């Protein structure tokens, strides 16, 4: 299988959505969504169910047409181009391996449709199966394979035809945790090796953070934020993104001042009067538990400990007027003995990492 | 859980009831089988002597042979036509939307509630008006109409059970609609199509009431020939023929059950 | 892109069949409104006389008898078929289940004539039942079953049984066994649990079975014809006699039309009566 040389992410756009709108009966699934997926990048569409991510993927695949806007693949408008004429490779949630064909038959299907001669087809099928580490299973039927194996066959089938873009619709949601993690790693390796542009849909934010070059967080038919995983996690642009991606504690406070060092603020705070109330979103790993006597932002009682193996989650109920319930993540396991349930503690905000939003 | 004496008594009564009912169901077939081997011409019980001659006579009887041949011709034509028409329309029913769809579907399903004698009379009158009264054509058309609802339902259920993601996957791999149909949809539908065809064939071969109206002397199917025989003769030839019928049908059903699963067939209502 | 590429090709044949069928039904309707010309197959002018004749006691009687026979058959089939359906659904042994299923379903595919003929041999004066009874000395003269309504109903019940059992079994199979277990865990004995839980939940299947049995029995022809022997007549037999004995197609057609109207009316009434029952549905 021809390997594309890994291309540094240039401005070359493989798939572009321009103000795409889609309605189903009266419901607007996508509202003028614009998105550019660069060649060779791994783009994830992340959001809760109903946000439109799968619709956007299906529009890229060509299963239906947009009601407004344009979709361009490789610079060409494909709104009216049917699925089978677009050079896409797709992986379905339930794999959709043809039950009446063998593994080899499944993987070769796209090549047969393109009238690739048998010799070359066999060679490419062999290479694809080797890529997903399934050499030797050519003559098995799908029902004789495990879930993980079926998944690899589906991947091989989609990749062997050298698609312009690879579309994945929550492919790992049916797998158990360990298998999922190892499949994610493998997928990323293969994708990097081949340099194939990939659009990945998921509702699992940790999966999105670990796999993507960039991710688009969506809600109710709109893209709320587009950026690298780090940008999304550390600089969420609104409350939804802040709470949807990763855990967040919300601390009510007052805006003291805005200067370069002390208030980490996104544009939303400009124009907010000083001493107006704001909500500060802080990640659990950026809060620290101290003795109640030390200077701190909040005081509270430990109400629960959750041992997570590598770290401990502590739930703290604040005693003061804020009545907030905070989640503090403490690495290691000392917290289990040092901060038992019922202990009176202080909570301090560890670093400058926090995002504030105006209270409306 | 240990069962009390009461529960065991109930269970016993239940089993007894079921056995009695089964006996009721099986009684005619058993009686006919005994009668078929009777040596004497008069139906009487118990038979004094045993013989196979009625089987020989049944097989040799010209009207039965003609009836069998006509029945085969009509059945093969009507079930195949019904399969093609029904499968195509079931496809449309499952996938497409257009204005007249429900109307056509309603019309094609209505033979389920319209008595066969009405359908038979209707086609007889129609045939008389266009001069088709003694043809195979009118019988075949009549059978197609009667059998179509079952084929429609059978294929429609198979289509509904077919996961559409296979076809989407094939399209995503570059296969145009016709290719998807031939390489993916049809092969996966095959069990439903075969059982629908088999079902239609059996129903058509055994159909009597409407056939009585639309067949003529030279096109009469086997059930009609049997009916005419019973009205005139009282010997056990019919019993012998019935036994062959029962054995053949039970064999077909057992075969269908083993390979296709009767559950699929039973999704549909049955008719005579 | 065309989302419905095969619409025309796939619908045309079906539409053709629908049209043919409509033409046949229209022919019946048309003939029912035309006058009968004795000795000819061609009907006369338009008239309502056929329908007027239906009101005569002779024919009204046949309508009544038909409804009565259908009702008797449906009710008997329900009572006898329910235990069978229950056993079919609750049975554990897979092989026994298969055998049971084959026994129940096979008669369905045998055709009316074979089944009816078998009953003639059972019910006749020289038939099985009478021979056994005479031999055992229980009676001294054969009991007359043939040419009686009882004989016709018995045969019809046998013919309709597979359908009823299948529909009842379909309805029963959707009832989770946990419901009965819950009832028993709350203290209800098996019979009470059945009567108060399983039976009500099976009502949709019962309604479906009874309506189907009724509609189907209405269509019966060979059975009343051969076992009724002219003394027990249903609408179907009358249509045949008029059509083939006297070639009075117009009147036969009017019988068909009236019969069909009658079926619709009775089935609608059945549906209405069953509506409160249909609201009980298992999840």
Main features:
heterotrimer; A: 360 residues; alpha+beta; six-stranded mixed β-sheet; five-stranded antiparallel β-sheet; C: 283 residues; mainly alpha; 13 helices; 74% helix
Contiguous uncertain segments of 5+ residues of chain C? none
**Based on the structure, what is the oligomeric state of the protein chains?**
heterotrimer
SSE string of chain C, helix = H, strand = E? HHHHHHHHHHHHH
Mean pLDDT of chain C: 85
Describe this structure in words.
The complex is a heterotrimer of chains A (360), B (272) and C (283). With 360 residues, chain A is an alpha+beta fold. Helices cover 25% and strands 32% of the residues of chain A. Chain A is built from 9 helices and 18 strands. Chain A has helices at residues 53-61, 103-113, 118-131, 147-159, 177-194, 205-211, 229-234, 239-244, 334-338, and strands at 13-24, 27-38, 42-46, 68-73, 76-77, 88-91, 165-169, 197-202, 214-219, 222-227, 249-254, 277-282, 287-291, 298-307, 311-318, 325-331, 344-349, 355-358. Chain A has a 6-stranded mixed beta sheet, sandwiched between helices. Chain A has a 5-stranded antiparallel beta sheet with strand order 13-17-14-15-16. Chain A has a 4-stranded antiparallel beta sheet with strand order 2-1-4-5, covered by helices on one side. Mean pLDDT of chain A is 85; it is low at 1-10 and 261-268. Residues 267-272 of chain B have low confidence and may be disordered. Chain C has 283 residues and is mostly helical. The radius of gyration of chain C is 23 Å and the shape is globular. The model of chain C has no long low-confidence stretch (mean pLDDT 85). Chain C contains 13 helices and no strands. Helix content of chain C is 74%, strand content 0%. At the B-C interface, α1, α3, α4, α5 and α6 of B face α1, α3, α4, α5 and α6 of C.
